[in-house]
Queue: 2 jobs
Job 1
Amino acid sequence: MFDKILIANRGEIALRILRACKEMGIRTVAVHSTIDKDAMHVRLADEAVCIGPASAKASYLNKAAILSAATITGADAIHPGYGFLSENADFAAIVEEHDITFIGPSPAHIRMMGDKITAKQAALSAGLPCVPGSAGSLDTEEAALKAAEEIGYPVLIKATAGGGGKGMKAAHNAQELAHSWRMARSEAGASFGNADVYMEKLLLHPRHIEMQILADNYGAVVHLGERDCSLQRRHQKVLEEAPSAALTPEQRADIGQVACAAIAKLGYRNAGTIEFLYEDGKFYFIEMNTRLQVEHPVTEAITGIDLVREQIRIAAGEKLGYTQKDIKFTGHAMECRINAEDPQTFTPCPGLVTGYHPPGGLGVRVDSGLFAGYRVPPTYDSMVAKLIVHGANREQAIMRLRRAIGEYVIDGIKTTLPLHNRLVHEPDFINGDYDIHWLERFVGHKG
Ligand code: ADP
C-alpha cells in the first residue's frame, strides 16, 4: 500500500480523497493555487505545496508543477479526482514514467475513451449498444448533410473531444444543420482546442443512466448499479439518484452484465462509468468516464462501498476480493449539486461565505469545502457543495432531502439550494417521471 498520496485537485473532491486516505492510514499532500492557500483541503492535508497562481492553467493543470510537488514530497501515488488532469492521458503517462502511480486506468484507456469516436468504436467492438451516428468526424458541411440524411433528423452534433455538454448542437432539418454544424465546431474549438465534431441521432425523451464499474488489475470486474442523472441543465447534471426509478432489478442485472463484459473485454482497470441514454426499454452507449464521478456518493450510499478506497486499493495492486453476488443494494440515495450561482439566472455568485451551517442527522452527507469566513473564488467551477441523502426507499429519501435542504444555511453568497427545494416538491420529480429535457422546461417555466 502507498505511504503518501498527492491529491491533484481542489474543493470538495480533494477533501473526499483526503478523507479516504486518512481512513487508510495514508499520508496526504495537498496542492493549491495562491488563491486557495486557506482552503479546507489545504488545512486538513499533512503537507501542502503551492503550485502556481489562481488560473487553473498555471496551477491545477500545470503538470510540471504537480510532478515537482510529488517528487519533492516523496509521494508514491497521485489521485487526480475529477476534472482538471483526471482524463489527461499524457499526464497519466508522465506520472508513471516518474515511477509514481497514477490512481486510475492506463493512459491507453484514458486516451481511447477521451476521444468520443474511438470510444464509440471501442464500445461497439466490446458489445455495447450505441446511439446510431456517423462513423467518424464530419469535416465538411457536405459530409454533415450526408450523415444527417442517413441517420434521419433530428440529429445532434457533438464534439469528439467533448465534455461538460460543450460543443453540442441539435438540428431538426437540413436548414438548421449548416448553422448547428458551424456552431458546434466553433464551440468545440474554443473549449477543447479541437474543432472535430461527429453526429448522433437526437433521442427525444431518453433518461441518462450510467453504470458504475470497478475492475482490478487481474481481470475481476463488478458493477455497483446505476445512477440516474437525467435531471440536467445545459447537458450538465443537477440532481442524481440511485437506483433509477425507471429500471427493474432484471434490467439492472442485464445492463450490468453487458457493461462488465465490455470492461473485461477492453482490459480496463480501476473505477469507470459507462454512460447510456435509455429510451423505450433500450440502452445506448454515449461515453465512458475514466475517473471518479461527481455523483459517486449515491452509489456509495446504496452499496456501502467506499469508491475512493477501492480506487486506491486497485491502484496499489490489491485484488477486488469480492464478486458481483456480494454486492447488495440497500435503499435509495439522492445528491444535489449546490452551485454558487443565482438560482434563477444561473450567473455565478462567488464571494464571502458569512455564515455556514450544514445539515446532519441520519442518512445525510455533505461533501463540501465551505466554512464560515471562506471566500468562494471566481476562478473555478461554481459547484461548492454536494448534499447526499440515503433513505430506506425513494419516498423516505425525498422527505429526508426536503428536511436537509431546509436545515442548510449558506449565508453571504447565492446558491442553487432554492432550485433544489422547488424540485423536491414537484409532482413529476416525486413520481420519478422525468427525462433529460424535463429540468430545462421546469427551469424555463418557473425560473
Ligand atoms: P459530455 O461529455 O459533453 O457531457 P455526453 O455525450 O456525455 O457529453 O452527453 C451529455 C448529455 O447530453 C447527455 O446526458 C444527454 O442529456 C445529452 N445527449 C448526449 N447525446 C445525446 C443524444 N444522442 N440524444 C439526446 N441527448 C443526448
Job 2
Amino acid sequence: MSWFDTARFGLFIHWSHSSQKGLEVSWPLVGGIPPVLDCGDVPVDEYHSTAATFDPQSWDAGSLARRARDLGMQYAVLTTKHHDGYAMFHTKQSSGSQPPFSIEQSPFGRDIVREYADAMREEGIRVGFYFSLIDWHHPDYPAFTEADKPYTFGKWRQPESPQAWERYIDFMFAQVRELLTDYSQIDVIWFDGHWERTPEQWKAQELEEMVRSLQPEILINDRLPGAGDFETPEQFVPPQPLEGPWETCMTIGKLWGYDPRDTDRKSARQLIHTLCEVAGRGGNLLLNVGPMGDGSLPPAIIERLDEIERWMSANKEAVVGTQAGLEPWQFYGPSTRSGDRVYLHLLMRPYESVSVRGVHVKRLRSVRALSTGEALTFDTRTAIVDLVNPDPLGEVTIQVPEKVIDPSATVLALEFAEQPFAN
Ligand code: GLC
C-alpha cells in the first residue's frame, strides 16, 4: 500500500515560457499533431525566442499550493522540463556550446521548481516532477528544426552519431540527478516522451536504477519503459478499472498549456463527475491547469476550481482516502467505500428514491446526504427466506428529497455497523 493508492486527486501544472504568447507548451514548435492536438504551427526560432523574456511576476507558489490543498488534492506534478527543453529549474547542464536553457537565464531568474516544491510540501501536498525525455532544443538530441516538419510518428530525426547521443544521455541523466538531489524528497517522477526512442536508447533501466537510488520512496509513472509504478491513461477514464495503480490525467480545455483560443472547456460539474467516476473505479485524477505567462491562472479556470472546491469541501471524504465501492451492477453510478461506510455518488438527479443492492442490510445504521448531513429515510428488502437469516445481503431504497440535491453531484453516505459487503 502506498499513499498513491487512495490519493484520488492531484494537480497537474503545464507551464513554460511559451505561455507568455498563449501558446501550448512545446507542441506548436513542431506544428502540433492535428486533429488530435491542434495548437497551431509556430516557427521553431520564434517559439524558443520567448525564453529570453520570461518574467512571470504574478507567480505565487504558495497560493497555488493552498488552492490545491483546498481542492482536497493530495499531490501535484509540475512540468520541470517539457519537450521544448526549457528547464523551469536552475540547471548546470548546458545544451552543447550554449549556456543552460533555463529559467535562471530569464529576466525572472528565480527557481520555479524549488518554489513549487517548497510550497506544496508546506501544505502537506506530495511533490511530483514531470520530466520529458525528449528535448527538441538540445543539439545532440537532435533539436527539432523547421525542415523536420510536419511531425510524423515514427519519422523522427535520429542523433547525428553515437557520440552525440551519449552526450545527450549524459545531459539528460544529469538533469534528472539535479532534480532528485537538490529539491529534498520527491514523491513522483512523471516521465514523458518515451515514444521517440527505444528503451535501450533511453537507457531506461539505468535511468530507473538511478532514480530509485536517489529517491528510494519515489513513484515512477509508466512512461519510462519498464519502470511503471502506475499507469497513466491520458484524457479519458478507462472502460475497466486497471489492475494496478493508475491515474487519469486530464485537461480542462483541449490543451495542456495556457492558450486563450482553447475555450472548449469542461464544466466544473463534468470535472466533478469525472472525479467521482475515477474514484469509483479505484483510480486517481490528475487534473491539469495551465498558468498564463504572468504565472497566474486564467479566470475561466479559477471559476471551475472554485466550484470543485465548494463541492469538495462538503464531499471530500467520499473521494479522498476511499477505495472503489460496489460492483457496477449493484448501483447505477459510482460508489466508493471507506471502512464501514459506503458512498453513493449521484451523477444524475434521482426521481424520488434510489436503490442499492448487494449490501448487508441488517448492518445498515443510517443514511445521510453527505453535504447537508440530513438523515434520509430508507427501507430494506431481502428474500422471504432471508427473514430468518441473521445477516442477509439485500437491497436498500433511499428517499432523496429535492432539498438535499447538490447542483454538481449528490453523495449519500451509508453507515454500516461493520463491513458493508463482501471483499
Ligand atoms: C503528452 C503530451 C503532452 C502532455 C502529456 C501529459 O503525451 O506530449 O504535451 O504533457 O502527454 O499527459
